Amino acid sequence: MSHVPSKTTLGVVGGGQLGRMLGTAAAPLGVDLVVSDPTPDAPAAPVVRDQVVGGFDDEAAVRALADRADLLTFEIELADPDVLERVSEATGTPVHPRPETLRLIQDKLVQKRRMREAGVPVPAFRAVDSAAELETALADLGYPAMLKARKGGYDGRGNVPVESPEDVSEAFATVDGPAMVEAFVPYDRELAVIGCVGDEERDSFPVTETVHEAEILRATVSPARTTDTVLERARAVATDVLSVLSGRGVYGIELFECDGDILFNEVAPRPHNSGHWTIEGCHTSQFEQHLRAVLGLPLGATDRRAPTASANLLGDCETRRTARLAGVAAALSRDRLAVHWYGKREVYQLRKMGHVTLVGDRDPTALLSAAREAVADLRV
Length: 380
Hints:
Blueprint: E1 8-13, H1 17-26, E2 31-37, E3 50-53, H2 59-67, E4 71-74, H3 81-91, H4 99-106, H5 108-117, E5 125-128, H6 131-141, E6 145-149, E7 159-162, H7 168-175, E8 179-183, E9 189-197, E10 202-204, E11 208-213, E12 216-222, H8 228-244, E13 249-258, E14 261-268, H9 278-281, H10 286-295, E15 308-314, E16 321-322, H11 328-332, E17 337-341, E18 346-347, E19 352-359, H12 364-376
Parallel strand pairs: 1-2, 1-4, 2-3
Antiparallel strand pairs: 5-8, 6-7, 6-8, 9-10, 9-11, 9-13, 11-12, 12-15, 13-14, 15-19, 16-18, 17-19
């Protein structure tokens, strides 16, 4: 077990909503967080010790962060693994998850190839570097399919559906760079597992059902509305995914359920939107678990307290504008409902601004519906 001093400072590259929730989880553990983020007074700033202003690939900012921290982690995939590696070597400050894991997952094609090599079940896919290559690949994979930018895409960005041969040129122009194309997966539902890697422990939170619209996560419910056999298979696939990755922390693993089987979609080496429900719904939240794991502390219990649903509050405006939250009293009039506001200063279309979580001894379908009704009470 790693030795963790009684006074520990963790440096976090990224100061968005995940950094904010990490800061809230760190305080009861006596852990100080310092974050680096390009946005002054980032969402995490009010709940952490301090913020270094600098880009995710700004070596001077990351070095300043490391100089103040006992360990480093990151809450966004835009962190630069080469910068993290150089700073870690220069300062002796460990980084978890490891920079090589970040490097692996940043390229969707590299990630998918590595998982396939490890025996993780994945959809059929091809690398495509031009519209002509895309057309050739789809002659084999068939239509419809999903074209994905290899780098930089998240929250559905960089993903373009290709419905027919007439869509090929426009789709590739939209991605604008090296890409991969995946065969369409006729899934029954989407699932997610938050995997946990500690110093000498591995665990996972209960399998969660995720609801996406237009490639954006809208809501989650746990337990997932599927069979015990599927749940066991999902956890087994998640365990195989963790074996490919290096370093302590929590990992958001996205999966497809297809006719009783499981296919891997992608993994994020950080706390994940699909695990926000664990704050109220589990004995240990994914954020506390990430801190425990990164710091080499014993992992917490991952048991679910009760059925739990969560729904995201998304921006719904065509132009950027100042963000103000309204409707909180109406939402909180529901028993066992929690509101999480991310403190972002600006709102724009489909930006994640917050979420609600509802815990209760209800049928998962009813609980999910109630959570989605509750988030509709909120206005930005």
